[in-house]
Amino acid sequence: MNKAVTSKPKYKTRQAYLDAALALIHSEGPARLSMRKVATHMGVSPMAVYKHFANKDELMAATLDAFIARSDVYPADELPWDEWVQCLARGMYRALAGEVNWISALGGIRYGEQALRVTDSFKTKLINAGFTPRDTLQAYMAMTQLVVGAASIRASVALDGETRVGLMGSYIQQLVNSESAADRDMAEELMMSAQTPLVDIGMPMLIEAMRLRLG
């Protein structure tokens, strides 16, 4: 009588666990991620996950790194600093707008290699362009807040351009009918902004302020 052959489960790579964590964050959000849920998703015991990550904090940091690497937010090195910053901001915005569950977790995750690379690349680009360390830090915080704010607004209302105009329809009409030329110009700007990604509405003013600071 032939004995049944029982094959051992295939070894799960570290990347496989990160892929599982990314999938769970996409579907359920980072607050509900746990070592046990990753294990269940992978069909293994929780101890198998602990072989790769010491705890949930380490798993979250590594998963954020995987998310950043997958998003490919880095601009070309040869770009001038102002174009480079705008490209970085747009890349970060696209990444967050496509994975909105990350937004709520960004402030509470320890930075890993990829997250630190974003910060260090920004620092290096601006310092080499002539910005002071203080101006560089302020510019980085302003850009990050602009990107996260724009992505948060888009996530909270899921607005396309037409819907954004629709929600402000009565106000725009009020401006159109105003006797003030400035009000009518504002109505036109609001209509034009409907065709602009939210992050690009505020970026020109930030870049102009940075140019003035640089002198």
From TrEMBL:
Gene3D superfamilies found in the cross-reference section = Tetracycline Repressor, domain 2 (1.10.357.10)
Residues annotated as DNA-binding are 34-53
Write one Gene Ontology MF term: transcription cis-regulatory region binding
Query: What InterPro entries has UniProt attached to this entry?
Result: Homeodomain-like_sf, HTH-type_TetR-like_transc_reg, HTH_TetR, Tet_transcr_reg_TetR-rel_C_sf
Signal sequence span per UniProt? none
**Alphabetically ordered keywords of this record:** DNA-binding, Transcription, Transcription regulation
Pinpoint the HTH tetR-type domain residues: 11-71
Protein name, entry field: HTH tetR-type domain-containing protein
Q: Which organism is it from?
A: Pseudohalioglobus lutimaris
Organism placement in taxonomy: Bacteria, Pseudomonadati, Pseudomonadota, Gammaproteobacteria, Cellvibrionales
